[in-house]
Design brief:
The chain has about 300 residues and is an all-alpha fold. Helices cover about 75% and strands about 5% of the residues. Strands 2-1-3 form a three-stranded mixed sheet. α1 packs across α10 (about 290-309) and α2 (about 60-85) packs antiparallel against α9. The longest helix is centred in the last third of the chain and has 36 residues, at about 195-230. The protein is globular. The mean pLDDT is about 80.
Length: about 300
């Protein structure tokens, strides 16, 4: 049932971070630096994985794809948030808002799937090292990557098909730094109870279940390594700890935002920033600063470039 109240909405107002002009400038500088670090860091990983002859294992192939998704995911929301900090009218068109939500959940769903694939890769590498290359073949890896994009597309389309036809009249203020489904649903002049439950099931419970499955899989890996050899436990823990950090930082905000999507958690700007700005930047930080092979490959490529120049 639709309830018309006022004129048809053609744009939404993103509240963002309110405050004095100096504070807006401060946020502009900080978020610009973080976004720049995200793009540069993830591109550096992609270039290193692509052109380094030593990083030809499936783990680095998946890492390169994860970096690409991080760039895409961050680019959907962060540039608009940064420009709005200096804009007098912090608006986004209805079409732009719908596109932002579509691509956010598209890349987010694909990254969620890819993180599960990376957990499977670590299980095979640590628990079945002799069969690692055979199991994690190029054909299987390409299939996993394609599957992650398909699941991301299905995940976003299942929600956007129900959201795109909702009527919006009068109220057009989104209390966030970007458009997201729970907040936009609140503005619809229609009965959205069923759609709200669907969002909880689709995004909230899916994030929570994937997070639990990933933690369980990492625990199984550590238990298996401990049974085989206590010496390998510390090495396995070091390898998996970076994955656990990425998984926790990615799924943590998702769970709070989408398990309780129509409570105050959904309009928590700190979680929004962590989810869309901080997490994509942490991927290159964690994997480059903690991974000796990645550091060595980067230095080798740099020296090769300098010598050729």
């Amino acid at each position: 049932m639709y309830f018309k109240n006022g004129s048809t909405v053609t744009e939404f107002i993103l509240v963002g971070f309110s405050g004095e002009w100096k504070l807006q400038i401060f946020f502009f500088v900080v978020f610009s630096l973080l976004y720049g670090a995200t793009v540069v860091g993830n591109i550096l990983i992609m270039v290193t994985v692509t052109f380094s002859s030593t990083l030809n294992s499936p783990m680095y192939f998946l890492l390169g794809n994860l970096s690409f998704l991080d760039i895409c995911f961050s680019t959907v929301t962060t540039p608009k948030m940064i420009t709005n900090l200096l804009a007098e009218h912090k608006t986004i068109s209805v079409g732009g808002c719908m596109a932002q939500m579509f691509f956010m959940h598209f890349f987010g769903g694909a990254e969620m799937t890819l993180l599960i694939v990376m957990a499977f890769d670590r299980y095979v590498a640590i628990c079945k090292p002799l069969h690692y290359r055979t199991i994690m073949s190029h054909k299987l890896l390409n299939g996993f990557v394609i599957l992650s994009w398909i699941i991301g597309f299905i995940h976003t389309m299942s929600q956007m098909m129900l959201l795109v036809n909702l009527p919006f009249y009068g109220n057009n203020v989104v209390n966030s730094i970007f458009c997201d489904i729970p907040l936009v649903i609140k503005l619809a002049c229609a009965e959205t109870y069923t759609l709200e439950l669907f969002v909880i099931a689709d995004s909230g419970l899916l994030s929570f279940i994937c997070f639990i499955l990933l933690l369980v899989s990492y625990t199984v890996i550590l238990v298996s390594v401990k049974r085989k050899s206590s010496r390998g436990l510390s090495k396995a823990f070091f390898t998996l700890s970076s994955h656990v950090i990425v998984v926790t930082l990615f799924f943590g905000p998702c769970i709070f935002i989408y398990i309780w999507p129509f409570s105050n958690f959904s309009s928590n700007k700190i979680l929004d920033v962590f989810y869309t700005v901080i997490t994509p930047m942490l991927n290159p930080c964690i994997y480059t600063l903690r991974n000796q092979n990645m550091q060595t490959a980067m230095k080798k490529l740099w020296f090769q470039h300098v010598n050729s120049a």
